[in-house]
Design a protein that fits this description.
Radius of gyration: 16 Å
Order of helices and strands: EEHHHHEEEHHEE
Number of strands: 7
Oligomer: single chain
Shape: globular
Largest sheet: 3 strands, antiparallel
Distance between the termini: 36 Å
Helix content: 40-55%
Structural class: alpha+beta
Strand order of the largest sheet: 3-4-5
Length: about 150
């Protein structure tokens, strides 16, 4: 085990198990999980706070629940589809994790056309210098496009 960014003792858990845990959290017969999901939908600010990706995404797309962890970890669920998701950016980069989770969600065939457009907007992170001049972007690419 280790200590995470919030100083909570944390055990090593495979991503598959994290995704399974979030899928179970959203299961219709899991009343405590349903209460958590409902509370997050009504008050997404309480999940992550001001100017945070989690809060912004859940406000824009109420049918998803996402939560960041320390060092590039993201987990979430899509209750209406019964799916849990988890990812980890090896270098711990939060901005890459945000783009990756939005891109992953957008690839799933569980959204309306309008929801897919919302996810597409979250699937890129514009980079600018100190003078606010655009200098690049963070975006997901397929592994066969990365070379």
């Amino acid at each position: 085990w280790g200590i995470d960014g919030c100083s909570v003792p944390t055990w090593a858990i495979p991503l598959r198990n994290m995704a399974l845990g979030f899928a179970r959290l959203a299961a219709p017969d899991h009343a405590p999980g349903q209460r958590i999901i409902k509370a997050a939908r009504v008050h997404p600010f309480m999940v992550a706070g001001t100017d945070r990706f989690d809060t912004s995404l859940m406000r824009a797309l109420p049918r998803v629940f996402v939560k960041t962890g320390a060092e590039g970890v993201y987990c979430g669920c899509i209750p209406h589809a019964g799916l849990g998701i988890a990812l980890k950016c090896d270098d711990g980069a939060g901005r890459a994790a945000e783009v990756a989770i939005a891109s992953l969600l957008a690839k799933l065939d569980v959204w309306t056309a309008e929801e897919k457009q919302i996810l597409t907007r979250f699937s890129r992170h514009e980079l600018s210098n100190w003078r606010k001049i655009g200098v690049g972007e963070v975006r997901a690419v397929r592994s066969d496009q990365s070379r």
